[in-house]
């Protein structure tokens, strides 16, 4: 384990027990209602990292989110990895740094829970966008707008869905809001 530069460590939660539970509940709400925009106290990308990571998780952090790495390592005890394919969680600070979904840990048919979870910062999330979402947790359909993710991402997401029960789950973060897209969510653009 390498030393942590304490000068680079950001504050964690003000009330670790309460704030961690609140962020975890926001993550659960987002995944149980795919496409719904959920408020998260503080910056969603960092808050999810603080709430979801622990000493048993391997985390890959993209260059745009690298300023969070020391803080997450300090507060959660997570292991930072250089190879995104071996990561349990990936914190991506910019869409153009997001690895291809099929290159991530997808789990197996016997252990689908061994797949990666992506937490991606985007510039914009809207409830009235160009995507139509359907699947478990969505009564009928719902709309979602993520302008930074285009046709190439939709093709990757459809391939991800075809590998069910294996596959990647995704959180999209925009400032203090987040949206969950479990692997079972169907997206049409």
**How big is the Rg?**
16 Å
Query: What is the level 1 CATH name?
Result: Alpha Beta
What is the makeup of the main sheet? 7 strands, mixed
Instruction: Please write the string of helix (H) and strand (E) elements.
Output: HEHEHEEEEEHEEE
Average pLDDT, all residues = 94
For the largest sheet, list the strands in their spatial order.
1-9-8-5-4-2-3
> Which fold does the CATH topology refer to?
Rossmann fold
Helix/strand-derived category reads alpha/beta
Count the strands?
10
Q: Terminal Cα separation, in Å?
A: 44 Å
Beta-strand content estimate: 15-25%
CATH architecture label name: 3-Layer(aba) Sandwich
Report on this structure.
- This protein has 189 residues and is of the alpha/beta class.
- It has one domain: Rossmann fold, CATH 3.40.50.11310.
- It is 24% helix and 23% strand.
- The chain contains four helices and ten strands.
- It has helices at residues 16-32, 44-52, 69-76, 151-162; strands at residues 38-39, 58-61, 79-80, 89-92, 117-121, 126-134, 142-145, 169-174, 177-181, 186-188.
- The strands form two sheets. A seven-stranded mixed β-sheet has the order 1-9-8-5-4-2-3.
- A hairpin with a 7-residue loop joins β6 and β7 (142-145).
- The radius of gyration is 16 Å and the shape is globular.
Give a concise summary.
The protein is of the alpha/beta class and about 190 residues long.
How would you summarize the topology of this molecule?
Elements: H1 16-32, E1 38-39, H2 44-52, E2 58-61, H3 69-76, E3 79-80, E4 89-92, E5 117-121, E6 126-134, E7 142-145, H4 151-162, E8 169-174, E9 177-181, E10 186-188
Parallel strand pairs: 2-3, 2-4, 4-5, 5-8
Antiparallel strand pairs: 1-9, 6-7, 6-10, 8-9
């Amino acid at each position: 384990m390498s030393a942590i530069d304490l000068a680079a460590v950001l504050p964690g939660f003000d009330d670790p027990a309460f704030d961690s539970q609140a962020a975890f509940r926001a993550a659960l709400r987002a995944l149980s209602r795919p496409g719904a925009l959920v408020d998260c106290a503080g910056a969603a990308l960092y808050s999810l990292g603080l709430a979801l990571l622990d000493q048993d998780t391997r985390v890959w952090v993209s260059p745009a989110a690298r300023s969070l790495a020391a803080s997450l390592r300090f507060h959660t005890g997570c292991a930072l990895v250089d190879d995104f394919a071996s990561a349990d969680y990936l914190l991506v600070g910019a869409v153009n740094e997001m690895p291809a979904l099929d290159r991530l840990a997808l789990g197996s048919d016997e252990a689908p829970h061994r797949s990666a979870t992506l937490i991606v910062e985007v510039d914009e999330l809207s409830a009235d966008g160009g995507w139509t979402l359907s699947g478990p947790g969505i009564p009928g359909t719902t709309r979602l707008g993520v302008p930074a993710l285009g046709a190439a991402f939709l093709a990757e997401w459809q391939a991800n869905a075809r590998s069910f029960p294996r596959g990647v789950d995704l959180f999209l973060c925009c400032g203090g809001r987040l949206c969950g897209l479990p692997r079972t969510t169907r997206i049409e653009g």
